[in-house]
Design brief:
The protein is α/β, with parallel strands linked by helices and 153 residues long. It has 4 helices and 6 strands, in the order αβαβαβββαβ.
Amino acid sequence: MVTLNKLFPKHGSRKEKRRLGLGPGSGLGNYCTKGMKGQTSRSGNTRKESKEGGQMPLIRHTPKSGFSNKDFARRYDYVNVGSLEKVFAAGAEVTPEALKKAGIIHDVTRVKVLANGSLTKALKVSAHGFSATAKAAIEKAGGTVTVLEQKTK
């Protein structure tokens, strides 16, 4: 019969804690597996990877060039033709506001339509940009394409 005083964890499931610094007989005495003196032997040792011990760090002596002005970056929310097929009914007018309301895009600023998927419904699509194949797919399905004016600062 199994009683509480005879229950033990399964062999190998528990690991004994290493008792460091208990003399040379333990095999883990003296420096306790931490090497000799210095920063890495102390408690709370967290060195940054960029520190290289007095040597010039690699990140500082590699050449850097160029500048990326994010004000002139073209930021679009991309929409595929296949997602227009799923969400909108035939003859519907697709605008950035309608796309945001449907939950397809996050921001109304700029929208570009791409040709991933297929389209069988005639839709009136208004966006800031179209790929050539997306434009052809919309017109092939009997829809119309309107390119909206870009907002300038």
